[in-house]
Design the sequence.
């Protein structure tokens, strides 16, 4: 059983990651995708062009053929389409740089709730119905809000302001397809993240609309506005792993995250622990499998590898420069760290649900050995996924 942590969620994170008092919020300008626009040391080459079929270069290699890029790019289509809707007219790239403004205004009448618990139950039920795989609530924590946004059109920072009355955050996670994730590293596997984003934005837009229809203010955000992982940890969705991803009980690291800021009073969840930190200490499989060695094999550090990671706190950090360079050089997304993680299982299968607690117990070493012997985490040849 996951252990719920005591004290405030904010204090939990402060202690867990030894967050210094002079901690500074992340500036969106330093995100690798944005650095590719303004930082001469980051050359995206043809990486972004590969998402446009008219410019994409296929390869005569399994997993990188036309059909693989075709499926990947089609799964990304709606996420790209919605993000481009307001890019030219309003300088808003919603979902990736800016929060969503694609909702209707909602109801002028405020639904009444007997207590925040009742509203929270309702929101969670709605989120699950709308497609969230996992959902939790935390209080807004300013530390995770971006200090500034970034305009790729003007190549300059722009202000970011979420009204301070929006004090509650509903954090959701949407699973990525397990079978497709098994084909990382391939262009085909990028379809898992594309579809994950599309399902993520569907839940976020619908949930935001639901809250507005109840008469409250709500702003939906995907990869923009605030860091999703610390919010997800505070909302009790899972634990932080060595590969810098959230590890959930229901899907392991195979989730796309999003959040809705609202003024609807909600009851915050508690962070949970089910032994991930102890397991990562003995595992290191992601670090060993990462082609550019972007994942630390040693202890959490207080110094970030470069300016694309948070500083002034102590954690495992992925070297985003190395990771992105590998993506660019191979002209494809990578998710090997997701594929090989022993927490990445199809938990719809009973055997994996039953074995899960072993990873958090004193039998973790045996679990890890067995996991390797059973061949979990091995790459599924893309042509096999296609049934060819
Ligand atoms: S996505 Fe690939 S390159 Fe990046 S950290 Fe994971 S394994 Fe390494
Ligand atoms: S692969 Fe192993 S070390 Fe890496 S995040 Fe998963 S459990 Fe932790």
Sequence:
């Amino acid at each position: 059983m996951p252990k719920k942590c005591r004290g405030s969620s904010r204090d939990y994170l402060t202690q867990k990651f030894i967050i210094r008092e002079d901690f500074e919020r992340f500036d969106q300008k330093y995100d690798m995708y944005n650095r590719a626009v303004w930082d001469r040391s980051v050359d995206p080459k043809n990486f972004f062009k590969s998402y446009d079929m008219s410019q994409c270069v296929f390869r005569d290699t399994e997993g990188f053929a036309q059909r693989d890029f075709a499926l990947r790019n089609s799964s990304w289509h709606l996420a790209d389409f919605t993000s481009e809707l307001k890019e030219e007219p309003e300088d808003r790239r919603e979902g990736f740089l800016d929060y969503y403004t694609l909702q209707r205004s909602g109801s002028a009448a405020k639904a009444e709730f007997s207590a925040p618990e009742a509203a929270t139950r309702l929101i969670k039920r709605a989120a699950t119905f709308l497609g969230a795989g996992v959902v939790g609530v935390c209080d807004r924590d300013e530390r995770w809000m971006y200090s500034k946004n970034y305009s790729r059109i003007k190549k300059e920072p722009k202000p970011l302001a979420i009204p301070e009355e929006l004090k509650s955050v509903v954090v959701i996670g949407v699973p990525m397809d397990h079978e497709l994730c098994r084909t990382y590293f391939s262009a085909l596997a990028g379809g898992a993240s594309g579809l994950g984003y599309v399902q993520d934005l569907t839940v976020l837009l619908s949930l935001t609309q639901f809250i507005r229809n109840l008469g409250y203010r709500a702003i939906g955000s995907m990869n923009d506005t605030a860091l999703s992982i610390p919010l997800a940890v505070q909302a009790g969705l899972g634990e932080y792993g060595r590969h810098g991803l959230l590890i959930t009980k229901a899907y392991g690291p195979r989730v796309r995250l999003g959040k809705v800021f609202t003024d609807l009073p909600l009851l915050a969840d508690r962070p949970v622990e089910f032994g991930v930190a102890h397991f990562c200490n003995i595992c290191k499989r992601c670090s060993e499998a990462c082609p550019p060695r972007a994942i630390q094999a040693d202890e959490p550090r207080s110094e970030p590898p470069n300016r694309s990671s948070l500083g002034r706190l102590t954690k495992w950090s992925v070297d985003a420069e190395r990771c992105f360079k590998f993506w660019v050089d191979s002209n494809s997304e990578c998710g090997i760290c997701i594929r090989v993680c022993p927490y990445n299982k199809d938990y719809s299968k009973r055997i994996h649900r039953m074995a899960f607690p072993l990873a958090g117990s004193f039998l973790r070493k045996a679990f890890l050995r067995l996991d390797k012997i059973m061949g979990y985490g091995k790459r599924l040849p893309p042509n096999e996924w296609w049934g060819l």
